[in-house]
C-alpha cells in the first residue's frame, strides 16, 4: 500500500510541476498545498510597464489560459478541486461573478461564481473521456454584463494505472514441426492496455511465460514465442499448453497483468522408418485359386502419420516372384499379395518370398537415421485340389479337303488329369458349336472324324468346342476351341461374272470391240485364277465375230465386218467356252447375246428394236407416248361430263300429301310368331307418293320400256274392293318399272308356344260387317281414300 500511495502522489504532482515550468509569466501557480490559480494582469499594471518592457514582452489579453488537470478515479468524501479562476479586475469587492460553460459544466464540473474555484463533482474515467473543453467568463455581479471576452481552456483527465492488459484474440493455437532446431519461431501474441500509452508506464507491457518451460520461450517486448528445446518428438508428446502473462508498468512490482493460453501442436515429419510387425508370415492357398485372388496381407507399421506413413510394398527376392505380386492398400497401409499365374500342386508345393516396405515420401534431413524401409519373409504353401483335365494345347487348328471321305480322321485332341490320381478322360463335342453335326469325336482317344460332306464354297471355317470330362468326377470338365479349315479342290467350273448383253451398231467398223467379258470361279487356287476362252469347234470360223484374250484375264469380242442390219437379223448368239487351270481343269459354256442397234454417228446407241423403222420421221417414242397420254386424258374428261349430265336429267319424286297410294301386303301363310327370326323386315317398305303413277326403279335396268301409267281414277261407289285389290296387285307384279313397294313374305315356320296367338285376319271369326270403319275419316287426308272404300262396301251390303 505505501508503494501504491507513492505512485498515486507522483502521478498527481508531476503535471503540476510541468505546468509551473511551462506557464507564461502572467499565470500564478499555487503553492504545493493549494490548487493552481489562473490569473490575468490588470490594465493598470500593464500601463506601468515601461516602453522597453512593452517591446521585450509580448502583449497579452485580459485572460490567458492553459490546461488544468484532474486525477481520474478519485473518489474522496468531498468534490476535488481542479483549479481557480481569477482576474485582476476583481478587487475583492465581490462585484464580479464567474461563469463556466462547455463540456460537463454543471454536471461534472462546478464553479464557485464568487471565488472562481472549479471542482469535479463526479468520478472521472480517462478511458471514457480524456479531456473536457470549457469556457470561462467574468461578468458584472449586478448587471451580468461581461467584463472581458470569454476564454476557452481544457481540463485533462490524468491517467492512473487502473486497467489490466487483455489478450483480445486468445486463447491461441499454433503449430511447429517436430524435431525443429532451438529458437524456431512458433507464433507471437499481442495484449492491449486501455491506459494512456504516452503518460507514465501504465500501458508499457512486458511478456513472460508462466507455464510451458522448458519447451518454449517468449520475447519480453515483442511477445514472439520460440522453441526452447531442440528435437522435440511428436511421437513422444504431440501437444503443449503454454500460459503467457502480459504485465504493465514495465513489468515492475505493482503493475497489473493479464494472461492467456497458447496450445502448440507439433506437426509430423517423416523421421521414423516403417517396421513390419513380424519378420515371418505364413499363408496357404489352393492350387485352383482364381488368378488375381488375394492370398494374404502384410503390414509395416510407421509411427508417423498422413503421407509420412505411406509405404510401398515390393517383392524383392524369392522363388515365386513370377507367380505372385504385391500391391499397396492406401487406406489400410498394408500390402496385398495376389496370384499372377496358375499354381500346380504336383509341380511345386511351397514358395518363399522376401517382401520390402519403404516410405513413399522421405525427408533428406533425417537420412542419417538409416534407410526408411524394412523387409519380411513370406512363406506360401500350395494345397492340393481336384483340377479339371488339361489339354495339350490351348487351341487346335485342323485342315481337311472339301472332298474328304466321310468318317475320315481330321485330327486329334489330347488331355490329361493333372492330379496325382490321374482319372481317365472322355471327349465329346459341344453340339451348340456344331448344330449341323458335321463332325464326331472319339470319346476315348479324342480323334475327330467327318460326319457329313463339306463344301468350301459354303463355309471355309468350322469352329467347334471339344469337352474333356473326368470319368471319376463328372463335375471336372475342360473345354478347348478347335478351328477346322476346309481346303479347296477344283470342283467348280468357271462362268461369266454376270449376265452380259452386247450391243452392235449397224454403222460399226470391222475390228471394233463389241463387249469385254470376265469370268469367275468359286474355287480359290493357290496361284490365283487363270482362264482360257475359246469358241465352239463348229464356230471357230465364225464369219461375224472373233474373240481376243486380254492380260487382265478378261475377253474382248470383236466384229469381223460392218454392214450389220437389224432387219435381216436383230440378235446374234455367241457361245464361249471358259476353262480354268485346275487339275483336272473344268470348263463351261456361256452364251453372249449380241443385239444389232441403230446408233448415232459417234456410236451412241439410240434404238435396238425393228419397230423403230415404222415410226414417223422426226418423231421419237417419247413424243408418241405423250400424245397417247393426252388422248386418254381427253376421253376420261368426256366420259365424266356425259355421266354428270345423265345424273342431272333423272326425274325426282314429287310428294303430294293428298295423293295416297295403297300398300297392299298379302300373307299366304301365318307368321312364325315370336320365335321366327327370319321374318321380313317390314320397315323396308315405303309409302309411294308418285304423281301420274310413274316412278322408275333405280335398282334394276328394265328389259322392256312401258308407257307411264295413268293416275288412278276415282273409284265409283259400289265397286268391289276385292276386285280392285286384285287388279292393282296384278299390275304391280307385272310392272318392272314400279318400285319394290309391294312385297309378299312367306312364313314357313309356325313357331311354338306363342302366347299372343295369331295376328292373321284370314281366319278371324269376326266378319267385315261387324267392324265399323268410320274412324278412318278422322285420320286425315292420307286415309281418306281407304275410308271411302270401306264405307262404300258397307253401304252396298246394307242395300
Automatic annotation (TrEMBL):
BP GO annotations = adherens junction organization; calcium-dependent cell-cell adhesion via plasma membrane cell adhesion molecules; cell migration; cell morphogenesis; cell-cell adhesion mediated by cadherin; cell-cell junction assembly; homophilic cell adhesion via plasma membrane adhesion molecules
Protein localization:
Cell membrane
Keywords for the protein's UniProt record, in alphabetical order: Calcium, Cell adhesion, Cell membrane, Glycoprotein, Membrane, Metal-binding, Repeat, Signal, Transmembrane, Transmembrane helix
Q: Please name one Pfam family that this protein belongs to.
A: CADH_Y-type_LIR
Cross-referenced CDD domains: Cadherin_repeat
TM stretches of this protein: 613-642
Offer a single GO CC term for the protein.
synaptic cleft
Membrane topology annotation: Single-pass type I membrane protein
Show the GO MF annotations.
Answer: beta-catenin binding; cadherin binding; calcium ion binding
Report the residue ranges that make up the Cadherin domain in this protein: 87-167, 168-276, 277-391, 392-496, 496-618
Classify the main location: membrane
Query: Please, which domain of life does this record's source organism belong to?
Result: Eukaryota
* Cited function: Cadherins are calcium-dependent cell adhesion proteins.
Q: What is this protein called?
A: Cadherin-8
- UniProt organism field: Tursiops truncatus
Q: What is the lineage of its organism?
A: Eukaryota, Metazoa, Chordata, Craniata, Vertebrata
Gene assigned in the entry: CDH8
